Structure formats: C-alpha cells, structure tokens
Known about the structure:
Helix content is 52%, strand content 6%. It is mainly α. The strands form two sheets. A three-stranded antiparallel sheet has the order 1-2-3, with helices on one face. A three-stranded antiparallel sheet has the order 4-5-6, with no helix packed on it.
Amino acid sequence: MVLSMARPFKHPKTGVYWFRKAVPKDLREALGKTEFIQSLRTKDVAEARKAHAELAAVIEARWGSLRGGTQRLTTEQIAALAGEVYQDAIAAYGADPGEPEGWEGSQDLLEDALDTVEVNAAQGLAKLEKAIGSDLDGRLGRRGLRVDADTRERVLLQVALALHRASGALRRRAQGDYSPDPGASRFPEWKATEAPKAVTPAGKTSLTGILADWWKEAQATGRKPSTHESYSNTVDGFVAFLGHDDATQVTPGRVVGFKDHRLASINPRTKKPISPKTVKDSDLSALKTLFGWGVSNHRLPSNPAAGITIKLGKRKVTRPKGFTDEEAEALLKAAEGHQQGNEQPKTFAAKRWVPWLCAYTGARVGEVAQLRKQDVRKVGGYWVIHITPDAGTVKTDQARDVVLHEHLVAQGFPEFCRRVKDGHLFLTPADGSDVLGPLQGLKNRLAETARDTVKDTRVQPNHGWRHGTV
C-alpha cells in the first residue's frame, strides 16, 4: 500500500477522492497511527485537488505544531512586520492609486475595527481578523513563525495601524500629493538575528491532543464515532485558521474570528454558504466541549469558547418536512423498478429495499442501511427487524424490534435476506467491523438517487421518511 500521496486518489468503487499521507515516524506514538486518511467528499477532480492542497496545509500545520511551541515576538519585531505591510501597500498601489474615495473607505473600515477594540476587544479583534487575518497568516507563514495569542493580537493592531497610515498616504497620492510620508521612517528593519524564544510546547495542551484524549474518555462512555468525526473536522479547520495547534494560546477573539470565517465559507459539496445552525451546533459546540474538557482536566486555565454563540432566527417553513403522498409514491416506485447496471450488488439491494423499509417502519436511513442478515428474523407469525447498536450506530443507543409490514413480506424482503451471505445486507465494513465510513458513503448514494426523483431541496431526501410513513 502506498502510504504517502502528493495528490488525491480515487476510490475504485465509489469514485470519491481521498487524501492519504504517512504519519512521520517521530509523531506516530503521539498520534497513535501510522497513516492519516480522510475522504475529500467529492468526485470532481478539480475540487479534489483544491481540497487536497488545503487539507495538506492543515495536516502539516498540525504536525508542525506538535513538534514545537509558539513564539512571542518583541515590540521591535512587531513594528518591523507592520512596516513591511506599509511598504508593500505603497509599492503595490503608489504609482497608480486610483480614486481617493477608495482609500477613504479603507481608512473608515480600519478605524471602525480599531474603535471597536477600545469598547469590546473580542469583537474588534474579530473584525480585524476578518479584514486582514488571512494576509497576516501568509506573512507569518513565510517567515516560519507560529506566534502566541498575545503576540497575534499585538501584531493585528499594529498591522491595522500601518494599513491605516498607508491608506492615508495613498489617498493623498490619489489627489496628486506625492510628498514623503514623515511617519514612514518610524518602522524598523526586521532583525532575524534576534530570534524570538519558543514558549512552552503544546504537548498535551494541543488542540489535537485534547481531541484525542477527550475521545478516549468519550468513547468509553458511549459517544458515537460520528461525533468524533464531526469534532475532528472542526479541529482541522480551526487549526488551519489559527496557523498553530496550541490550545493555551487561543483567545475568545480568535474563536469569534473562526465563527465569522465559517459563516463566510462555502460548503464545497453543496456550493452554498455554511449555515449558522451548522456553525453553532457543530463548530462552536465542539470547541466548547473540547475546551471545557481541557479545563476540567487541568489542561487549560479557561474556556475561550464559553459564551460565544449565534442567535438563530426562526426558519421559514414553506412545506412539511416529510414527503408528500405523491413524492413518497414516486420514490417507492423508483425503488421497486431500480435496475442494477454496473453498481455493486449491495448498493443495488440498498436502493431497492431501504426506501421501502424506511417508509413502512419510520426508522432512520442509517439504522436500516446497516442491517445485518441476523437482524431479520421471524418471531411467532411475524417477521421483524432488530435495530441494534451492535450493527453500527443507533441514535438512542437502545436496541428495538420493529414488525415488518405484510406488504414488505409479500414483496420478498425476507426471501432476499435468506439468499444473501451472513453479515451486513447493504454495505461492507472497511476493516471487518467499523461501518461508519461505508455507511456514510451509502447514505450519500441513497440521497443522490432520491434527489433524482424528488427535486424539491426543501425536503431532505433521506430524512423525509422520518416525518410520515405510508
């Protein structure tokens, strides 16, 4: 098996692209694995390449942070960085600055953020992060710097002031005034010989370390693998946003900045903005839980995500959550008439039977899609399906029996189960036991197939059965 790949690889069966990279030997003990592998969740090669590059940067930042700590810059070094920003702006736009109104607008934007810092530091710093954070990340990255939280805030403020001064100089040039800016000489040169001292390495206070140790405990108390996957995605994105992996250096302002960053992001799969509900219930919830666990276990002094939330407005409801009778009938007819073609037998069987099982039982798609042969049995004169956490993931963690409708029996579902091999009916676990990855892939394929029939995006193609059965 190839353990390190510089480009995405395509799954031979699903066509979905994946990221795979060998974990460096010096980090394998800390991470508990020899290989990092994650779905890129797209079949489009261009999207896969972009997602691969972004994820590679996240992973390298994470591994780099595990090897060392963050840095604290001197006041002189911070001023030198701000001076570079000033000089770069003048060099880029000084010869042809355009209209003065544009630079006045830039000054107003920066003034608003700086004024907000005086009243509400977290809110003001979040505004600065949104305006100049990405550029600052690139500038620090090119120098190989991972700065601590206090340094980050000081650099943000000084860079904002430098940009405000540069905008003023460019506004004057746009009006024909090219006289020297007397304040330009205030910036010192960067002194590489005065290397900043590294602070305490992240170690067990790294975001990834806290996630790993939290999961060991959470897994033992019954938390689901899907929760771990969701939290991992949040941590990956947060580490990439921060540019480091040190939880002790995270401030409330950076959490607010990440919240705003996520709200401005586009979901690569749906091509739509990330919803406020997703940011609140997934990202902020994960950070609050992990930082809270760190505080409770004496890893961190405080929870920087505490109290940060999003007030959600009441959603407009323009149709029922469940399928209409016409939609349900169309889905069931499509399932009954589905032709196998080139797809795998288990995928074909899922598209044939899962919609009917969901319609008649009201069970979740995942609960039905992970059924095993031994979960279908006859009790007395009735056929039943046994929905159990032993087969995969069940939201309530409680096993239950559901009697099959006589129409399912007449269609031949018990006979189908009798003919197939032991094990899962509709999917094949990746390593003989873990069904989470294959289950999610199957649910995605079922949703795509249902969407071919039910075009209305206001109803979820898999979850619609939960809000009414035939």
